[in-house]
Amino acid sequence: MARVIMGIESSCDETGVGLVRLHDDGTVELLADEVASSVDQHARFGGVVPEVASRAHLEAMVPTAERAFATAGLKLSDVDAIAVTAGPGLAGALLVGVSAAKAYATALDVPLYGVNHLAGHIAVDTLQHGPLPKPVLALLVSGGHTQLLRVDDIASGITELGSTVDDAAGEAYDKVARVLELPYPGGPPIDKAAKQGNPKAIAFPRGMTGPRDAKFDFSFSGLKTAVARWVENTERTGDPVPVNDVAASFQEAVADVLTAKAIRAAREQNIGTLVISGGVAANSRLSELAAERCAEAGIELRVPRPRLCTDNGAMIAALGAHVVAAGRSVAPLDFSANPGLPV
Ligand code: KG4
Ligand code: ZN
């Protein structure tokens, strides 16, 4: 019999509640995906303020859940299992979601699963493109993470091949936006400015691409510093900063490194499908270059729509459904959030 899974996400600045239906044939159907974001409250700080995020989750959790049930036309009593992000993420923020999930699970007397946020970013693709082939390579790029993951089984078999040694890709976007006096979060305004600029105008460095660098790791802090220094030097001459060219050249450097390493990993690991997810997957140049390079290499590319790429509850519900389908054991009610949870 089909089962309804509720997913709760609160690892960063998005309060998400998703509802999905797990069908008997293993397919997972999206029923509701409600998100309340506190991003506007963090904008003037140029980054997420943990205490502000926790308070916002506390205020938004129940109304967001109510909206999800209303959208799906379901009642709380229709829920068969609950999945919640156990980590990684901000400790206080995670605790709000975990506490809410425990309360719902206890009140409804249904099983509770603590799941990994990073795996959720990959599982969400099944809501749009159907079951994942085995294995797939996942490039996870957001404000908090930049990782290449080999996914043999979404519910239990994920191996990290590489990750950033400093800033996450989205963090680099946010910091460069600040340098260019563009609003926070920086991804969308840089993406927009870059469309009017020349990506070859400035040769910004491609981090971690030297012969002695770890093959699948990333580094974006050198790029961020190079952009800041270039802008400072231009300002010192009194010339106007060519914001569109800087944005386009920076964006090209990020997209180049991310896609080159992903293709290399897919080739070396003999993996035929690449999934790109996380907030930065919404970047137009990244998906364009990934499509080009995947086509050349004969690799299938799957990029969930932007709404599913950024943090949401549906990704946690989708992962919960795969965990339920795999028969993984239920979390005891005394489990806790784990801010540093590995994949
Ligand atoms: O996945 P997400 O919503 O939250 C985290 O888990 O971090 O990702 C947010 C990040 C931000 O750093 C934002 O600047 C970036 O995703 N982002 C983009 C674009 N849209 C959002 N980066 C590049 N291009 C975009 N179009
Ligand atoms: Zn995320």
Description:
- With 343 residues, the chain is α/β, with parallel strands linked by helices.
- The chain has 2 domains: 3-124 and 312-325, ATPase, nucleotide binding domain (Nucleotidyltransferase, domain 5, 2-Layer Sandwich); 136-306, ATPase, nucleotide binding domain (Nucleotidyltransferase, domain 5, 2-Layer Sandwich), CATH 3.30.420.40.
- It is 44% helix and 20% strand.
- The protein has helices spanning 39-42, 50-72, 91-108, 117-123, 125-129, 169-179, 187-194, 221-237, 243-269, 284-297, 306-309, 313-325; strands spanning 3-9, 14-22, 28-37, 81-87, 112-116, 136-141, 146-153, 157-163, 273-277, 300-302.
- The strands form 2 sheets. A 5-stranded mixed beta sheet has the order 3-2-1-4-5, sandwiched between helices.
- The longest helix is centred in the last third of the chain and has 27 residues, at 243-269.
- 5'-O-[(R)-(carboxyoxy)(hydroxy)phosphoryl]adenosine (KG4) binds next to helix 6 and helix 7.
